[in-house]
Every structure is written in C-alpha cells, then in structure tokens.
Amino acid sequence: MILAHISDIHAGPQFKKEAFKWAATEINELRPDALVATGDFTENGLLSEFTTASQYLRKIQCRRKIFVSGNHDYRSTGYLLFKRFFPSEAVTEVGDAVVITLSTARPDRDDGEVGHRQNLWLEETLRKHRGRMKIVALHHHVVPVPDTGRDDITITDAGDVLRSLVRGGVDLVLCGHRHRPWIWRVENLTVVNAGTVSSERTRGFFSNSYNIIEITGRKIDARLKVVGGTTIPLTDVVKKDLLGLPGTTER
Fold this sequence. Notes:
By secondary structure, the chain is of the alpha/beta class. 24% of the residues lie in helices and 24% in strands.
C-alpha cells in the first residue's frame, strides 16, 4: 500500500502554483492507494482560497482522498466552508489498513486541540479496529519539531492523545502544520510530519516537499519527496544536514 502525504498548500498570497502542479504530476505517476492531505489548504479561510485549493487538488488523480482541516482553514469562519469543499469520512479503509482523522483546528486559533470527547471517540474507534494497521491523520503536530523556533502551538492535550495513540496500538500518525519534514518514533508508534508542498514559507528544510509512505504488512517505509527533485528516506532528514542535497533547491 502506498500513501501520498501532502500538507500546507496555503492557497493565497504565498501559494506556489507551479510547485503544486509538479507535485500533482509526480503523485499521479506514483498512483498511490490514497492521498492524505493534512490541512492548511488556504491561508485565511476565504472563499476564493478554498475555490483555488479545490481546483488544484482536483489535478491529483486518486480514488481515495482523505482531508483534514488546518488552523488557517478555520480563519474568517472558514470552518463553514471546509466541509463543503473537502468532505471526508472520519474513518477510511485503505487495503488492510484503516485511516482515522482527527479535527484539531479551532476557529481563529493557531494552536490545536483534540478535546476530551473526540479523544474518547478515538479510543473507542481504535478498539473496534484492534489487530489492523491503524493510521491517524491530523493537522497539528503531537510532538515538537526541530528547526521551527519557539513552539507553543502543538495540540494542547498532546499528552492525553499520545497515551491514547500508544495504548490503542496506532502504527502511524501523519501531521503537518510546521512546514518541516521530520520523523519521530514513540515506543512502537511512528510520527511523520510533512513539509509544505506549495507554500513559500519553508522551515529548516528549504524546499517544497511531500511524503511517500509505503506499507508492507506492519513495515512502514517513509520517504521524503522533494517537489521536482530527489527522494530520500525521512530518517536521513533526522540524521544529516540536507541543505546541500541535490534537488532541494527550486528549479
């Protein structure tokens, strides 16, 4: 099973249209089983930005598209528009795996929150799918990410949520938000952060990128794909200084 994981499109003033077109072409050639987009489709939650993001996302030809809202999408009452433009099921079966989405965005707030009721729902949902490969997708990061400056905008209840993820036997968590690709391992849980696929505002890794997740049985192979450039294991991002990596500068 192959997942394409993109995040932080930011349709608006900082949107790089050509970068998104390159990424869409590459993803179409990959023919993934599902596209997982973890939030911030827009910059300010405006109708025009939702329209633009929707038009560009239609360029990606994938039968299963899983959408999660970001904090920027909830600005300017964008939460009223998000479900209209990007409907998505809370639980999606992809092959032998199940992808569960959490809504962490709150109106006009940069930090995120799962909340007690949603966390209880998560725990119950994980119990229902005991024994299966379990993937959870959300916008906000559950573990702080290096090279992103002061960080007080993780999900506010990260401790409770991490406990639920680990106890529930989640295999993989997909996040966005910080525009910095990274990978963490917490006990048997793999947490993968995506960079920004099409925003000018990159952090720490100064190229637009997305992730390619290949799952075989319980084995997770997470790779970073530079838009228009090279593909490397995400673990290399953790281990090495990649500023001079071929293919990590804009073409």
